[in-house]
Design a protein that fits this description.
By secondary structure, the chain is an alpha/beta fold. The protein has a single domain (about 1-275), classed as Alpha-Beta Barrel (TIM Barrel), CATH 3.20.20.150. It contains nine helices and eight strands. An eight-stranded parallel β-barrel has the order 1-2-3-4-5-6-7-8, surrounded by seven helices. Strand 3, helix 3 and strand 4 form a beta-alpha-beta unit. Helix 3 packs parallel to helix 4 (about 120-145). The longest helix is centred in the middle third of the chain and has 24 residues, at about 120-145. The protein is globular and about 50 Å long.
């Protein structure tokens, strides 16, 4: 199991320094939010991508994947009735898929809650159908580029579409692509699921559809900085034979960004090693 850091946690410094810091703390890689590199991934040149790859290589860490895919440019939506907006959104999704593959990443995490909101009534049904069409196109692109596009269930305080893992799984089954899977965010699962996070992992891992994990407490701080107990979560990952990446994704950085990144890595590694 690799442990990665979502790079916006330490985005108060240039990318090269992010790589050096993450490596010095003991992370295996960075999970990159594209907006931290460029406002529009379509604007990244081959030279830009080569410089990102070089920074990672020089520090001795990997780009494990991408997340926060549709934060920028502004105005994107997978559910909009405007065909031009959806076309633009799919172009950005495809550019992110290409970027992930170019950097050697394995997975892309589709969260982007504001860019998937549904309208009311019949519009909600139509919006879901439009989203599934875009996800199917993204799955085809991911398959061509040898990466996995993962759908993230998010809690109702963030979005009104795909709030539970079973809702994400329904779309995964509907699309039926080996390159389109689901992932589990511990904070979102703790707020939304009837099962505990550990029991959710035990329930869904055997399906083969959970291909990525993000760690944060339900209070939006780092794992180990709230009331959520990650011992059973990590035990469930070990028991189910998870061999992918766990990405640290806090949203509140206490006492500061670098210290938060260091603390949560030590907390998780300590538990993992104790379970060995």
């Amino acid at each position: 199991m690799r442990i990665s850091l979502c790079n916006e946690v330490i985005d108060d410094r240039p990318f090269t320094e992010q790589c050096v810091l993450a490596a010095s703390l003991g992370y295996d890689g960075l999970e990159i939010a594209p907006f931290t590199l460029c406002q529009d991934p379509r604007d990244l040149t081959d030279r830009d991508i080569a410089e990102v790859s070089q920074a990672l290589s020089d520090a001795g860490i990997a780009a494990t994947g991408l997340h926060w895919l549709l934060v920028s440019p502004k105005g994107l939506s997978i559910t909009s009735p405007d065909a031009a907006v959806r076309s633009d959104t799919l172009e950005v999704m495809t550019a992110n898929i290409e970027l992930c593959a170019a950097l050697g990443g394995d997975v892309l995490v589709h969260g982007s809650p504001l860019q998937r909101m549904l309208g009311d009534g019949a519009e909600a049904i139509d919006g879901r159908a439009r989203a599934v069409d875009i996800f199917a196109a993204a799955a085809e692109a991911a398959e061509r580029h040898g990466v996995i596009y993962c759908l993230e269930a998010l809690s109702v305080d963030e979005t009104n579409f795909i709030n539970r893992i079973d809702e994400a799984m329904a779309i995964v089954d509907e699309i039926g692509s080996p390159a389109f899977k689901a992932m589990l965010d511990t904070g979102a699962a703790a707020r939304s699921e009837d099962r505990t996070v550990a029991d959710s992992l035990r329930h869904w891992m055997p399906t083969g559809h959970i291909r990525h994990i993000q760690f944060n407490d339900r209070n939006r701080r780092a794992a180990g900085q709230g009331d959520d107990d990650f011992v059973p979560v990590l035990r469930a990952l070990k028991e189910t034979g998870y061999e992918g990446t766990v990405a640290m994704e806090p949203f509140i950085y206490e006492p500061d960004r670098a210290s938060c990144a260091a603390y949560t890595l030590g907390y998780v590694k300590g538990i993992w090693e104790a379970l060995a």
